[in-house]
Amino acid sequence: MPVRVLLVDDEPLVRAGLRAVLEAQPDIEVAGEAADGAAVIPLVRQVRPDVVAMDVRMPLLDGIEATRALLRTVPEPPKILVVTTFENDEYVYEALRAGADGFLLKRARPAEIVHAVRLIAEGESLLFPSSVRRLAAEYGDGGGNRAARAVLDRARLTEREGEVLRLMARGLSNAEIAARLVVGTETVKSHVSAVLAKLGARDRTQAVITAYESGFVAPG
Fold first, then answer.
1. Exposure string (b/e) for 169-192, b if CB count within 10 Å is 16 or more?
2. Which residues contact 47 (CB under 8 A, 6 or more apart)?
3. Which of 24, 25, 63, 79 is the most exposed place for a label (fewest CB within 10 A)?
4. 4-aspartylphosphate-modified residues are where (predicted)?
């Protein structure tokens, strides 16, 4: 089955460009378009996308609030890929904090756009880990976020789970973590699932942000 993508951006040219890039791929289809975050929830319910590619800055409802509303309202919500003009942007970090699964620059090359959609849909690796690390270093409270530290304390990760979380933060995929730890991929998947459950994280991105903000992993 192809990956179904919903495009949300107030610039028609951006939507047209993304559509052209994505629909050139045999395993991706554009399920719909919207010009503002306010239209996301009804469209998600209507077209059931796997991924929402959404501008972080829009006039009525921006990508941050649309992400929060979507995750709060829709059962089994799609993955959310924030599309932005500026990489080092507090809006991007807030969108990730709100539950977005990753971000993509509007100036990205076609191959990068396709790779980002596929990676977000699969959910087995962190998208642009070095960029997430830089954002966490600038906007993530320097490892002193008390709420994040409390989450880590309550999680009581095992030594192996902590090791897996650190490797997740470096952007390693399940297969790469398995090779590093000399274990099977299914074992890694079990560890990743346990880490997400213990942290109450929706996905790898939220788990890694908690790791950075709690000081469990240094973002520098």
1. bebbbbebbbeebeeeeeebeebb
2. 4, 6, 31, 32
3. 24
4. 55
Tell me the pLDDT of the chain averaged across its residues. Answer: 92
What pTM was estimated for this model as a whole?
Answer: 0.89
Beta strand 51-55 with 3-8 is parallel
Directed axis angle between helix 159-169 and helix 185-199, to 10°?
Answer: 90
For residue 93, count other CB atoms closer than 10 A to its CB: 22
Q: Among residues 159, 164, 142, 155, which one has the least CA distance to residue 215?
A: 142
Query: pLDDT by residue (tens digit) across 118-177?
Result: 999 998 888 889 889 989 888 877 777 899 999 999 999 999 999 999 999 999 999 999
Check: CB of residue 63 under 8 Å from CB of residue 95.
yes
The two structure tokens encoding residue 159: 């030594």
Helical ranges in the chain per DSSP H: 12-23, 40-47, 63-73, 90-98, 110-122, 129-139, 146-155, 159-169, 174-181, 185-199, 204-214
